[in-house]
Amino acid sequence: MSLIVQKFGGTSVADVEKIRAAARKAIRAHTQGHQVVTVVSAMGKNTDRLVELAYELNERPPAREMDVLLSTGEQVTVALMAMAIESLGYKAVSLTGAQMGIRTDNTFTKARIQSIDTQRIQGYLDAGNIVIAAGFQGIDDEFNITTLGRGGSDTTAVALAAVLGADTCEIYTDVDGVYTTDPRLLPEARRVEVVSYDEMLELASLGAGVMHNRSIEFAKKFGVPIHVRSSFSDTTGSMIVAECESESSPVCGAAMTKNEARVTILGVPDVPGTSLDIFSRIADRKIAVDMIVQNMGTEGRADLSFTVPNSELAVTLEAARDAIEKIGAQGVSYDENVSKISVVGLGMAQQTGVAHRMFSALAEAGINIYMITTSEIKISALVPRDKAQDALRVVHNTFKLDSVAEDARNWSRIQHDRSQTADLQSVVATLQDDTLEKLTLTDIALVPDQARITLLGVPDRPGIAADIFADVGKSGIFVDMIVQGYDGEDGTTSVSFTVPKADYANSRAVAEALCKKFNLRGIEGADDIAKLSVSGIGLRSHTSVGTIMFRTLAQAGVNIQMINTSELQVNVVIQSDKAAETERLLRETFAESLRS
Ligand code: ADP
Ligand code: ASP
Ligand code: MG
User: Checking CA distances to 132, which of 176, 389, 481, 569 falls within 20 to 30 Å?
Assistant: First the structure.
């Protein structure tokens, strides 16, 4: 018998009428012959209200008590939903996270799922019940209630779909699918028919709040097809599957993280191990750092900038100050009024000039870029918060995200493709206890023969990145990683990029011309570097990956010249003479997480 997991978000169960409507959707699937598990969120804005109550009583509410409090929201909805179904004449049973045996680690407010006891759920289903599951919660080894992080009901739903071997996971919400960007921010955003796991994972972690990013980790790991659709109509929505919508479009979506903060650690001694000290302290607090850029400093010191969600700034500064004292850095500066604008697309890995198109669009709109990082399928730019909305619009326009590409996949095609995906049961059969939300790495790779160019003293003005990459692009050089750093001291920034070693001389010539044209302070470069990539699923949100990498590199006495992180890869640029040895060490260190 087929099994469907449905999930209804807060707005979709906000009042009695909506709960009844959701109950009818569950019953309809049941009467069509499916076994049905329905995951529900807290009603309406109840979780927000509970958070407010907590802060009225305590400025720093203990995380354990926060979870006891927040889990009550979902407990209310499961009971009401079961009652609604019963009143319509069908059998239903409500279950909390603990009752379903959703075991998590003990990171309160951000717990990760370790295992789920499917027997109880399956027993209720086999007895003819619709099972109503509380989203977003679990229990740790000591019987403490835990929650999975805001928006975590999506993760409960996809995790249940994975372990129960469901045919599909339907996410019912207040939009009718996944859009090219948040339709509340840009009315011209377009609903997509299909988006790939990789793209959705990046988009969700870069601000597309329609799905909890960790739910996509599960979906990708276990091949769960997700159908995001409206609670308020019966139209089909968007599918999140392995394929992307269009092979020809470089970008599938844009996202904004409005409340981001930039932190710069000033005067970091340029010796192996300092990054480890800084980032491990932040990672221990489960804060995902993004846009890491190290500026070449003077006198053996460098400035290290990165971004964190604004809500995590206070805790990050606490960690940073501890690290500064320990490693003898000179201080810290930060900017709370910045936003991150990102574009994502599987297609950009094959196309050149995508970054340049984005920088030009921002330049034409007169928007200054403070920091840039690129990785294989995303480009992020840090901009002033009061320009963020404009920035999102111009970027969306520039990649023509409002129109459908000619080679776009449509629904019938996806259905067809789906029937060819691996048998879910066989995937589930390979699951072992405690492995559900663990880090999964797919590869560690060394890309030798790379070169780096760094432009120093680049004036901090709108358009400069576009100008630079216009000239680099014209020379036909293939640019891989780009990072533009923040330099607090003299109002300039530095821009580094990597190219194949064979293009080094050519790139240096272009850099020298740029240096004259824009009156830069100087250029710096190296043609003896290599890129080391660790690939996997959910790497940025598994905050320990960075720490482990930094530790391994520090132990090997290797200095990191450039770094970029995404949910799919962490790349570091290092000296080539130590690259092979470092790769070996990384393989050894990550052996357990590397899938055979
Ligand atoms: P739920 O309570 O059902 O989980 P959420 O509020 O978490 O609903 O997610 C739905 C919201 O996500 C939409 O109302 C929309 O404003 C926002 N959103 C952000 N990015 C996107 C996107 N790319 N596509 C669709 N919706 C998005
Ligand atoms: N109720 C929780 C929240 O508001 C979980 C969820 O809705 O997904 O964050
Ligand atoms: Mg949500």
Answer: 176
Q: How many CA atoms lie within 13 A of 512 on its CB side?
A: 6
Burial classification of residue 89, based on how many CB atoms lie within 10 Å of its CB (0-12 exposed, 13-18 middle, 19 or more buried): exposed
Task: Give CATH superfamily name and number for 3-247+409-432.
Answer: Acetylglutamate kinase-like (3.40.1160.10)
Q: In what order do the strands lie in the sheet with 137-139?
A: 113-116, 102-104, 137-139, 145-147
- What superfamily does domain 254-402+441-589 belong to in CATH? VC0802-like (3.30.2130.10)
* Ligand positioned closest to the Cα atom of 9: 1
Q: Is 135 in the pocket of ligand 2 (CB under 6 A)?
A: yes
The distance of Cα 401 from the centroid of its chain, to the nearest Å, equals 20
Q: How do residues 441-497 score in pLDDT, each as one tens digit? A: 999 999 999 999 999 999 988 999 999 999 998 888 889 999 988 766 677 888 999
Inter-residue contact 70 to 39 (CB < 8 Å): no
pLDDT tens-digit readout, 357-403? 999 999 999 999 999 999 889 999 999 999 999 999 999 999 999 99
**What is the whole-number distance in angstroms between the Cα of residue 68 and the centre of ligand 3?**
20
Structure-block tokens of residue 594: 């590397």
Could you give the residue range(s) of every CATH 3.30.2130.10 domain in the chain? 254-402+441-589
Nearest-atom number in ligand 2 for the CA of 154 is 8
Locate 471 and state its tokens.
């000239």
Determine contact, residues 157/135, Cβ cutoff 8 Å: yes
Whole-number Å distance, alpha carbon 506 to ligand 2 midpoint, is 53
Residues of the chain with CATH 3.40.1160.10: 3-247+409-432
Beta-bridged to residue 294, according to DSSP, are 304
Which atom of ligand 2 is the closest one to the Cα of 136? 5
Mutate to test the pocket of ligand 2, among 8, 38, 70 (most ligand atoms within 8 A of CB): 70
CB 270 within 8 A of CB 442: no
Q: pTM of whole model > 0.90? A: yes
